[in-house]
Amino acid sequence: MRFLIGMHINPAVLDALTDEEKAAIGEGHGAFIEELKESGELITTQGLTDPSQAAVVAVRNGQPVVTDGPFLEAKEYLGGFYLVDCQDRERAVELAARIPDAAIEGLGVEVRQVMFADGSLEA
Predict the structure, then answer these.
(1) Residue 40, in any domain of the structure
(2) Helix-then-strand count for the chain, H and E
(3) Based on the structure, what is the number of domains in the chain?
(4) Which residues contact 87 (CB under 8 A, 6 or more apart)?
(5) Taking Cα atoms as reference points, which of 94, 114, 90 lies closest to residue 32?
(6) CA dihedral 14, 109, 69, 119 (to 10 degrees)
(7) Which residue numbers delimit the YCII-related domain (predicted)?
(8) Is 114 helix (H, G, I), strand (E, B) or coil?
(9) Looking at residue 36, which CATH number applies to its domain?
(10) Where does the pLDDT of residue 123 fall: very low under 50, low under 70, confident under 90, or very high at 90 and above?
């Protein structure tokens, strides 16, 4: 089963961390990635730029309308993700709990099962 583990970022929380705490997060992600590679559960992981560099695209009257920034105003945003292939939801939650961000109050880690384009859940 495939799961997306999304890391929700609050810039104010990150800005309040010390350089040592920020370094520990980076080192924790490095170790976590290596463990996922060894277990064969990692499909991919990516970090995303902050929402100030986002573009929102909507089609109105048959024409694309592009605006800058995030779709919704919020202090948190999706900062990156892991796409994993593991046995079940319980394992995905177990993995998510090992992400360094999960231990920092004010940051969030979300687990969602991947769906196919036809809308059915992956078996």
Answers:
(1) yes
(2) 3, 6
(3) 1
(4) 1
(5) 94
(6) 170
(7) 1-114
(8) coil
(9) 3.30.70.1060
(10) low
- DSSP state letter for 83: E
48 lies in a domain? yes
Q: Name the amino acid, one letter, at 64.
A: P
The order of strands in the sheet holding 77-85 is: 42-47, 77-85, 2-9, 108-113
CA distance linking residue 55 with residue 75, whole number of Å: 17
Contacts made by residues 60-69, CB under 8 angstroms, sequence distance 24+: none
Token code pair at residue 21:
């705490």
Task: Tell me the pTM.
Answer: 0.83
Strand partners, 59: 64
Mean pLDDT computed over 18-25 = 96
Measured between alpha carbons, how far is residue 29 from residues 56, 80, 101 in Å? 29, 11, 9
Backbone angles phi, psi at 83, to 5 degrees: -110, 115
